[in-house]
Amino acid sequence: MSEDIANSPNQSEENVQVEMEAFRVFLKSRGYRVTREREAIAESILLNHDHFDVDELFLNLRSKSPVSKASIYRAIPLMIESGLLAAVYLENGHMHYERVYGREHHSHLRCLTCHKIFEFNAPELTQVEKRISRMMGFKSEGHKFEIWGLCANCQAEKK
User: Fold this and answer.
1) What is the CA angle 148-12-93, rounded to 5?
2) φ/ψ of residue 101, rounded to 5
3) CA distance 104 to 4
4) Sign of CA dihedral 104, 109, 110, 111
5) Of 2, 32, 103, 109, whose CB is crowded by the most CB atoms within 10 A?
6) How far apart are CA 42 and CA 74, in angstroms?
7) Tens-digit pLDDT profile for residues 71-119
8) Can you tell me the distance from the alpha carbon of 128 to that of 123, in angstroms, rounded to the nearest whole number?
9) Which residues in 95-122 are b (16+ Cβ under 10 Å) and which e?
10) Cα separation, 68 vs 58, whole angstroms
11) What is the CATH code for 107-158?
12) Rounded mean pLDDT of the chain?
């Protein structure tokens, strides 16, 4: 579903083992066990180059590994806390996620018709974040920026 500009598939696959080890270290540092189920969930997420929701992840995993949906719901907050994953947007009652470890900060354009996600990097948004935070006496920890509307293809189809 995503038009991913941040990582090529080959580069990402080479980093999966580094990311998996980072997740293992995170789990151990928090006193959690490293289980086969958690590893299967993490590996499936880290091999994914698209934005996804829990249902998509569950269907993908179900054919490869006996993983429960409850385990996915428990693993996702751990992956977010570890810095490997981010919650991106809510659509039709489902939160969508993306892997973020080692990737540049980016923003999204989301088509409301075909549901494609287009990623872009706009360093000037970081400057706006800093300026507004400074002006308001706020200590910023980051920002999310998303534009939703119709992509060029969906606009053309509506004509």
Assistant:
1) 35
2) -60, 125
3) 12
4) negative
5) 2
6) 12
7) 999 999 999 999 899 888 777 778 889 888 766 778 888 888 988 888 8
8) 9
9) ebbbbbbebebbebbbbeeeebbbbeee
10) 8
11) 3.30.1490.190
12) 85
Domain ranges of the chain: 2-99, 107-158
CATH architecture of 2-99: Orthogonal Bundle (1.10)
Record the pTM: 0.70
Name 110's bridge partners: 117, 148
Give φ, ψ of 106 to 5 degrees: -145, 170
